[in-house]
Write a structure and sequence with these properties.
This protein has 146 residues and is α+β, with helices and mostly antiparallel strands. Helix content is 42%, strand content 21%. The chain is elongated, with a radius of gyration of 27 Å. It starts with a helix and ends in a 5-residue tail after the last helix.
């Protein structure tokens, strides 16, 4: 276990020194975060990484790796993967992937744009308006005769 904790400490120190990440404690566990987004947790059974895509699938393929959630039961789509101590030699690469994912999450956050006037009507609304207009025109053309 001491080797695993030493490995985590080395990774955390590298992240803080080279990538401006912050080593902290979240939910009573040692963690590393960047721009307020945690991407690494360390606990006795192993280290948890916030991953996506191929990196997440590869991490889940490691022996004993499971989905994880910081606050409770994970679902199958949880981005967190708990990799056990037995695979601690793979933690370096997973930490880099988790850092990349955390940075991408900050870049790809949608920004709200100010609205200039009302939005355009959807095509269905235009069809309804045209249909009602033609019905009014037909109704206006009807004349009551004796």
């Amino acid at each position: 276990m001491a080797n695993a904790r030493t490995r985590y400490d080395t990774i955390a120190e590298f992240m803080t020194r080279q990538h401006d990440a912050t080593a902290t404690t979240l939910y009573g566990k040692p963690a590393v975060q960047i721009n307020g987004t945690p991407f690494l947790f360390y606990m006795l059974p192993g280290m948890a990484f916030r991953l996506q895509g191929r990196s997440r699938e590869q991490a889940l393929g490691l022996p004993g790796a499971t989905a994880w959630a910081p606050l409770g039961q994970p679902n199958e789509r949880s981005p967190w993967v708990l990799v056990p101590v037995a695979s601690f030699l793979r933690w370096d690469r997973l930490a880099i992937d988790a850092l990349r994912y955390a940075n991408e999450g900050q870049v790809n956050v949608p920004k709200a744009e100010p609205v200039q006037g009302p939005p355009a009507d959807p095509p269905a609304a235009q069809r309804w308006r045209d249909n009602i207009k033609s019905l009014w025109e037909r109704a206006a053309s009807f004349r009551l005769t004796r």
